[in-house]
Amino acid sequence: MMEFNGEFTSDHDRETLWKYFTDPEILASCAPGCDHIEMVTPSELKATIAVGVGSVKPTFDVDMVVTRTVEPELLEMQVEGDASRNSFDTVAEMRLVENADGTTTAEWEAQANASGLIASMGQRALGSVAGRIVDNFFQDLEDKADEGVPATSKLEGKSGAEASLEG
Questions:
Q1: pLDDT tens per residue, range 94-148
Q2: How far apart are alpha carbons 94 and 105 in whole angstroms?
Q3: So what's the pLDDT on residue 56?
Q4: How high is the pLDDT of residue 167?
Q5: CA dihedral sign, ordered 144, 146, 149, 154
Q6: What does the DSSP 8-state code read for residue 66?
Q7: What sign has the CA pseudo-torsion 124, 128, 133, 135?
Q8: DSSP string of 35-64?
Q9: What's the rounded Cα separation, in Å, for the pair 143 and 124?
Q10: Using one digit for the tens of pLDDT, what is the confidence trace for 40-98?
Q11: Of 13, 125, 151, 152, which is the most buried if we count CB atoms within 10 A?
Q12: Are residues 133 and 139 in contact, defined by beta-carbon separation less than 8 angstroms?
C-alpha cells in the first residue's frame, strides 16, 4: 500500500471552495488527464482518466463513491480504476481548514493499492506523478475560483458507505 498526503492553501473561503470541490463539471475540467466525469447519483461518479508514469500511460475507467461529507470541511472518497493490465484502489480524504487570514488550507491524504504495469514503476515514481497531478488539480481549481467560474455543490456522502482498501 502507498500513502500520499499534502496541502494547498487557497485565497478563497472554505464555503466557496466546497462548491468547487463538489461540482463534477469543475472536477472534470481540473483533473489532469480526465476525459469526462459523469454523475450517476449525488454520491457516485464515473470517469475516464489517462495517467502517464514513465513509459506506462494507461487510460482508466474510474468509479468514485463519495463515502462521507461534512459540508464545508470534509470530503471522503473511495476510488477504483481499471485499465488494460493495470488497476488501482484508493481511499482519499480532504479537509478544508479555515485560516485566521481568511484563506483556506486543503489538507489531503490518500492510501492506494496499485497493480499491473503501473505498480511496477514503484512508489517513488508513482508518488512523483501523484504529487504533480494533485498540484496541477489544486492550481486549476484555484484558477477557476479566481476567475469566478460558477460552481454548484452536487456531491453528498452515500448513506451507509465506508471507505476501505481491499488489501
A1: 999 999 999 999 999 999 999 988 888 777 778 888 888 899 999 999 999 999 9
A2: 10
A3: 79
A4: 46
A5: positive
A6: E
A7: positive
A8: EEEEEEETTEEEEEEE--BTTB--EEEEEE
A9: 29
A10: 999 999 999 998 877 778 999 999 999 999 999 999 999 999 999 899 999 999 999 99
A11: 151
A12: no
Q: Find cell 487570514 and name the residue.
A: 101
53 φ, ψ to 5°? -125, 105
Instruction: Give dist(CA 87, CA 69) in Å, integer.
Output: 26
Residue among 76, 141, 159 nearest 111 (CA): 76
Q: Which three cell numbers stand for residue 155?
A: 456531491
User: Which residues, 6+ apart, have CB-to-CB distance to 118 below 8 Å?
Assistant: 51, 53, 56, 58, 86, 88, 126
Please spell the DSSP secondary structure of 85-143, one letter per residue: TEEEEEEEEEEEEE-TTS-EEEEEEEEEEEEETTGGG-HHHHHHHHHHHHHHHHHHHHH
26: left (phi over 0), alpha (psi -120 to 50) or beta: alpha
Cell of 154: 452536487
In the structure grid, which three cell numbers stand for residue 70, read together?
A: 461534512
**Number of residues in the chain:** 167
